[in-house]
Amino acid sequence: MAPARNPLRTCAVGTVSAALVAGAVVGLAPVAQAAPAVRFVDIPGDGGTVLKANVVTPAGTGSHPLLVLPTSWGFPQAEYLAQARKLADSGYVVLSYNVRGFWQSGGEIEVAGAPDLADASKVIDWALANTPADSDRIGMAGVSYGAGISLLAAAHDKRIRAVAALSGWADLIGSIYSGRTQHVQAAALLDGAGAITGRRGPELRQIFDRFYASDLSQEQNLIDWGERRSAATYLDRLNASKPAVMLANAWSDSIFPANQYASFYEKLAGPKRLQLRPGDHATPELTGLFGLPNDVWKDTGRWFDHYLRGVDNGVDREQPVQLESRTGAGYEGYPDWKSVAATDRKIALAGSTTIHADVDSGADGGTVLLSGLLDQVTKLPPLASIPLLPRRWAAVWQSERYAAPQRVRGTARLHTTLTPTAESGTFVAYLYDVGPLGIGKLVTHAPLTWHGRTPGQPFGVDLDLFSTAYDVPAGHRLALVADTVDPLYIEHNPSGARLTFSSPENDPSYVSVPLREQ
C-alpha cells in the first residue's frame, strides 16, 4: 500500500479509546452474584489449551438445550453472567468461555482463526459430556468477537442449530478495510484492547503492522487472512446445514458497519432475522449485560426459545427484518432487506468541483464508539456547518428543501467521475441533513481509496455509503460533502494532491438516496 498520511494522529485517538474501553472492562464488567447453579471450570480447548469458563445449569431433571457464549474481544468470562442466569431460568444449560488469548485462558489471540473454531467444538464436546445438555438442541451467541466466532463455528460444526450474532461481523475485510481504506481508529481500538487484556502472537502483530504501514505488497495477504475469518466465505456451509441465524447490529457501528451484515443476511438460506437499531458498536446490547431490560437480549431469548425449545412465540411469523430509525420511535418490519427502501431519489451533483487534499474540512464521521453512542442516547450525530465548510478542501452539493419528511432507509449510493492528480488517493463522502440555519447532522458516510490510477485521467466511482435509517424533517435539505481527511481513516493523498469531481453529460453524477413510503 502507498505511504499513509497522518497515521499517528488517528491511531492516537483510537488508542485512547482502547484504553477507555479496557478500563470499562475492568471496572464495569458484571460481577457474578452467589448462585449454586454457577460453576467455574477449566475446559481443554484445541491442542489442550485451557479455556476458562462458567456453566449455569437450570433446575430440574432431564436434558436441556445448550447455549454456548464466547466472550467479546477483551472481556472476561463474567461478561454474560447476568444473561446466563436469565437463560438458565428459562431452561437452558448456558456455558460461557473466555476465548483463547484473553485474560486467564491460554494460548494467543487468533482473531477467530482455525484454533478458535476448534475451541468452540471442544467446548460443545465438554458440555455434552459434563452437563445435562441435549446434543440435538445446541445454540451459540455472543457480542462482537463472540458473535463472529459463533457464526463461523456454526459454519464448521453442524451440531449448532441456532445462532444469535450481536454486533458482529460476517465480512471482516468489508468491515475494517471497506472502500480499500484502513479504518484506523477501529483497528487501533482492537489492537490496544488486545494488548492490554490478551496476548498477541507474532502473526497478529505483523497483521496490524502491515495494516498501519499501508504495505500494498501485502494487501492480498491481508485480504486472504480476513476472508478466512469471515462467515461470508463459508456461506455455502451455512446454507447446507441451515441453522436459524439472528443478526443484530447498530446503524452507527464504527467497527462492523451494518452494510456487511445486511448483504450477508440476504444470502442466507435458512431461518433468519435481521435487526438494526440506533447506536454504535455493541452499545444496543450493553444494558442487558448488567441484567437490565434490553430489546436485543429479549429477542435473542425469543429466537432460541422457538428454535431450540419449540416455543410457539410467533418469532417465526414476524417480519424478519426489524429496523428502528435513528430519529424515530418503534420498530418497522419488512419481509426482506431489499424491501426496506420503496424508492430511490437522486440528487444531482452537477458541475465540476476541484478540492485540495491533506486538510480536514470539518466534515467528519465522528469518533469510534462515542459518536454512535451519543446519537443513540441523545439523537445528536456528528455535526458540521455546511455553509462554513471551506470549499478549497470540501466539495458540497445540496438538494432543494423538502416539503415533506424524507424517510431514508437502506444504502445511499454515490456515482461520480473523479480525476486525481496522483496515482493514489482517498476521499470520504458524507450525507448530511441540513436544517434552516445550515447545521448539518450526519446521516451516513463512507471512505474510498484508489491506487495505480493515471494522474489526470478521469475514472468512474460507485460508492455505497453505510446503511442507515434516518428521518429528514420537512423544510430541511440533504447535502453531499466530499473531503480528503477524516480521523477515522488512514488517507493516501500525497502532499499537494487535488481531486476534481465532474458530471459528464453522458454520465451525470448523483447520489441515490433510498426512501421508504411516507
UniProtKB/TrEMBL annotation:
Signal peptide start-end: 1-34
Region (Disordered): 499-518
Boundaries of every Xaa-Pro dipeptidyl-peptidase C-terminal domain copy: 301-511
Gene3D superfamilies reported for this sequence: alpha/beta hydrolase, Galactose-binding domain-like
InterPro entries named among the record's database cross-references: AB_hydrolase_fold, FrsA_esterase, Galactose-bd-like_sf, Xaa-Pro-like_dom, Xaa-Pro_dipept_C
GO molecular function annotations of the record: carboxylic ester hydrolase activity; dipeptidyl-peptidase activity
Alphabetical UniProt keywords: Hydrolase, Signal
Pfam family, one: PepX_C
Assigned protein family: Belongs to the AB hydrolase superfamily.
Protein's UniProt name: Acyl esterase
Organism: Streptomyces seoulensis
